[in-house]
Amino acid sequence: MNKLGLIIQREYLTRVKKKSFILLTLLSPLIFVALFTVPALLAMYAGKETKTVAVKDGSGVFVLPSETDSKVKYQLSDKPLEDLKENYKSMGYDGVLHIPALPDSGVGKMEAFYYSEGQLSLGSKSSIERRIETSVEDYNIKRSGYDETVLKSFRPDVSLKQKELEKNAAGELVETDKQNSAGIATAIGFVAGFIIYIVLLIYGTMIMRSVMEEKTNRIVEVIISSVKPFQLMLGKIIGVSAVGLTQMLIWIGMTIALMSVVGLFIPMEAVAEAQQGPMSNGPSPEEMSAMMGTFGVLKAQNWAYILPLFLFYFIGGYFIYASLFAAVGSAMGDDLGESQPITFVAMAPIIIAIILISPVIENPTSPLATWMSIIPLFSPVLMPARLAFEPPVWELLVSMTVLAAAAFFFVWLSGRIYRVGILMYGKKVTLKELGKWMFYKE
Amino acid sequence: MNILRLDDVVKTYGNYAAVNHVSFDIPKGVIFGMLGPNGAGKTSLIRIITSITKADSGKIWLDGESLNNRHPEQIGYMPEERGLYKKMKVGDQLTYLARLKGLTPADTRKELKYWFERFEIKDWWDKKVEELSKGMQQKVQFIATVLHKPKLLILDEPFSGLDPINTNLIKDEIRQLNQNGTSIIFSTHRMESVEEMCEHIVLINKGKNVLQGKVTEVKEQFKDNIFKIEFAGDLPAGLATTDAGDDTFEIRNATDHELSVKINEGGDSNDILRYLIQKGVHIRSFNEILPTINEIFIKRVGESNE
After folding, report:
1. Pick from A234, A214, A330, A215: which is nearest to A3 by CA?
2. For A87-135, what is each residue's pLDDT tens digit?
3. pLDDT beyond 50 at A278
4. Cβ separation of B53 and A442 shorter than 8 Å?
5. What is the ipTM of this complex?
6. A217 vs B87: CB contact, 8 Å cut-off?
7. DSSP β-ladder status, B200-205 and B208-214
8. Nearest CB to B84: which of A7, A219, A226?
9. Whether the Cβ atoms of residue B151 and residue B76 lie closer than 8 Å to each other
10. Following DSSP, what letter does each residue of A308-346 receive, concatenated?
C-alpha cells in the first residue's frame, strides 16, 4: 500500500473506531426515527379507543355524524342529565355531552359541557367541538330562513396554480408542464445550503484540531521524516471525508431501514398526521390536498439534476474548506485563543456565504446571486441553494469550473502554508506571516 | 566511504540564513557528534538530511547517492521534541510508523516482535501511549526510530529527559546498532555524552561549520601542550616559581605535590621529565592535559561569535 493510502487508512480507522463516533452514528438515526414515530404511536394508542358519548341535547340541534369510523360515537339519550351524570358508566358510556338549550336568536359563541372521569384527549376534544359546530351551523342556517345550498355556495375554494415559463429552442417563452412551487424550491434551497454549511464547518474544525494535535504532540516531525507534508495533509483530508461519508451512508441506510420496519407496524399516514401536532384538528380535505400537492411538487423536483450537482458542490467545498482549515491548524500553537484571528481566515468566508443565502434565495436570478455563486468560497453554499430554481446552464458551468479549479488551487496553497506551519513553534503567527510562508522554498 | 556528504549546503528562511555554506563528511559506521549551541542550525541541517525540507543550494549524498526520495526510508530520525499519537495504542502506532517507512506487513511484525522482546515490553502492545510513563514513551519512540533498520540514525538530544537507567539502556542500544554497521549522527550540546560516544564531530555555530574532525585529532589540535606532574618529596629550590625552566618549557603552577608545565614550541615532553629527574624530583605520574570537548566548544563558539 502506498503511503498516502496508509495515512488515509489511519485517519479513517482512528476516527471510526472511536466510541463517540460509533455512538453518534448509531444513535442519531434511532433518535431521528423515534422523533417521528413516537408521537404517531402515542396518537395511535390514544386514538384507537373510540369513546362512546351520551348526548343530552337540550335544544335538539345535534346532528349525528354520517361516517361511522369517527373517534367518538354519539348516542342521543332522553334520560335526565343528572341520571346520566350519575350512571353513565353502568350504561356503557365513556362520558356525557350536554348541549344546553339554545336561544332563538341564533348562536355565535356558546358553551357545551362534557362530563366524565378523566380528561378527554385533545384529538377527541376537538372532534367533539367540530361536531357541535357543524350541528349549530345547520341550526343557525335553518333558523335564518335562507337557502342552505345557496349559503354554502358562497364559500369559495381558491388555489393558486403556477405555470412556469421557459424559453424554447426558438427563443420564445412557452408554458411548461413543470409543477413548480416557489415555497418548495425555497425550502430545498435553504436545506441544501445549510447542510453544506454545517458539514463543512464540522469537518473543517475536525481537521483543524487534528492538525493542531499532531503539531503540539510533535508527532508531525516523525511522520514527515517518512512522508511529504502534503501527503500527510491530503491523507488527512481524504480520510476525514471518508469518515463523513461513512457516517452519512449509515445514517441514510439506518433511517430507511428503521422507517420501513416502523412502517410495518405504524401506517405512514399516522406518522404524517402526528407531525401535524395534536393541536390541529387533523388535516381537513383542503389541507390534505394541499399537502398532497406539496408531496407532488417535492416528487416532481428534478432530483436527478439536483442531487449530483449538490454532491459536486459539496465535494468541491469540502476540499476548499478542509484544506483551509488544515492550513490554519498548522499555523496555530497550543493556545486556541491567541490564534483566533487566523481561525477567522477559514471561518469568515463560510459565514459570509451563509449570511448571503437569504438574499440569494429570495431573488435567485439577481446579479448578487449570479456573481456570489461563482465565487468558489461561497458557491458551495449558495449554488446548491439555487439549484431548485434551476439557474441558467452557463452560470452553472462557469461556477462549477471555477469551483473545481479553486479546489485544486486551495489544496495546493494550503499545502504550502501547512508544510511551513507544522514546523513553526513558539511564534505568534500573523496573517502577513502566513502570506510569506506561501513563497518559502521547499 | 562516507555515509553522508554535505557540500556547500545553504538554507535561508526569508533573510535569515539558518544553514550558511556548510560542508562536511560523515564516514560510514561511526558515531558522529553534531555539536552547536541552541539555534546554531543543527535542526535545520537535520531536516535537510531527512528530506523534511530542501536545501536552497548545495549537494548532499547519502551512501554515495545524491539525496533522493527513497532515502527517507533509509534514515531513522528521533527529533529532540519527542512525539507520538497519545490516544493510539503502542502496537498500532509502531506498526503505522514502520509501514510509513516502507516496511512490509510481515517485516513489521518480525521487527516489532524482536524489539518488544528485547525491551521486555510485550504487555504494552494494547496500551495507549498516554497510559505510559515518560521513560516508557521514550523507549517506544526509540523503537519507532530504529524499527526499519536505517543505514543512518539521527538522534537529536537522545538522552534528554531520560533517567540514568534508561540512558544507559539507550546508550547500549546505540553502541549495539553501531557495531552492526549503523552510522549514527548525534546532535547535542551535552558534551560529556559526546566525549563518551563519538569518534567524529562537527561544530556548527550561527549556521556555519566552525570545526570538524576526529575527536582525538580535534583535541590534539586544540591542546595547549600542558602536562601535569605529580611528585613526592621537595622540589629543588627555584623550581617552585613559575619563571623557572628554560626556553623549552615553563612552569605554570606548582603546589607541594603537583606541577603544571607548558611545553613551548620546539620542546619535548621528555625534556621536562629528564630535567626533573636530573634535579632529583621523585615523579609519581605524568599526564598530558587535553582540552575537553566542552572547552573547545566554548572556545570555538566564542571565537566564531566575535
Report:
1. A234
2. 888 888 888 888 888 777 767 788 888 888 877 777 778 888 888 888 8
3. no
4. yes
5. 0.82
6. no
7. antiparallel
8. A219
9. no
10. HHHHHHHHHHHHHHHHHHHHHHHH--S-TGGGHHHHHHH
